[in-house]
Design brief:
The structure is a single chain. The chain has six helices and seven strands, in the order ββαααααββββαβ. The chain has 199 residues and is α+β, with helices and mostly antiparallel strands. The chain has one domain. The protein has a three-stranded mixed sheet, with no helix packed on it. A two-stranded antiparallel ribbon has the order 3-4. A two-stranded antiparallel sheet has the order 5-6. Strand 5 and strand 6 form a beta hairpin. 29% of the residues are buried.
């Protein structure tokens, strides 16, 4: 049975989840030599984004990662790659508050995050949502942190297409790999937004 972890320095409590077919193979596709690789996963940066966004949808609500926690995981995995932090920076002052985690999420949902055979690989995992610190799906727009209703969630899945195969397979995650630390708040910022200057 496949097992994965995001970090290897925490107690190993196992979380069992049900994943879509080929999840392990899709997130472990070998990358070309010379490309940047994650410190523990050996994945490329975009494929690691895909892995995080997809695995987050399989997790029970109490373990779902906020955008802030996703940003922490990415920076920790690619700590040897300075540009990883830059990818998560918000826009310049004066622009709308739109964080890069959401940009990657939109690419993932639209099937334009990773390429296979020189073409965009269609998304074969569930639609990715933005979550608050209680594991509730919230508005994609970071100016609106309202919790999505079941109907709004259904419409998002219809909009992006949910390739739910019906049959799922058991997959193990080490709870120690999930960085559940909360952020320090600044000027009333929500504790789940992916600001980078306190990561």
């Amino acid at each position: 049975m496949p097992r994965t972890t995001l970090r290897r320095d925490r107690p190993e409590k196992i979380i069992k989840v049900k994943v879509y077919p080929d999840f392990y193979e899709r997130t472990r596709t070998p990358i070309k030599s010379g490309r940047i690789k994650g410190a523990t996963s050996a994945m490329g940066l975009k494929r690691y984004f895909m892995f995080l966004l997809e695995i987050n949808e399989y997790l029970p609500p109490e373990h779902r990662m906020t955008d802030y926690q996703l940003a922490r995981a990415i920076i920790a995995e690619f700590h040897h790659y300075p540009k990883a932090r830059d990818l998560l920076k918000p826009p310049n002052k004066g622009t709308s508050y739109h964080y890069s985690i959401n940009d990657w999420r939109m690419r993932y949902n639209k099937g334009k995050l990773v390429r296979e055979n020189n073409t965009w690989a269609p998304r074969r995992g569930p639609v990715s949502f933005r979550y608050d610190s209680k594991g509730r799906a919230i508005h994609y727009n970071t100016n609106h942190n309202s919790v999505l209703s079941p109907e709004q969630i259904r419409k998002r899945k219809l909009k992006y297409g949910d390739p739910n195969p019906g049959k799922r397979f058991e997959y193990e995650i080490l709870e120690g790999g999930l960085d559940l630390r909360k952020k320090h708040l600044y000027n009333g910022q929500a504790d789940y937004d992916s600001f980078t200057w306190d990561i």
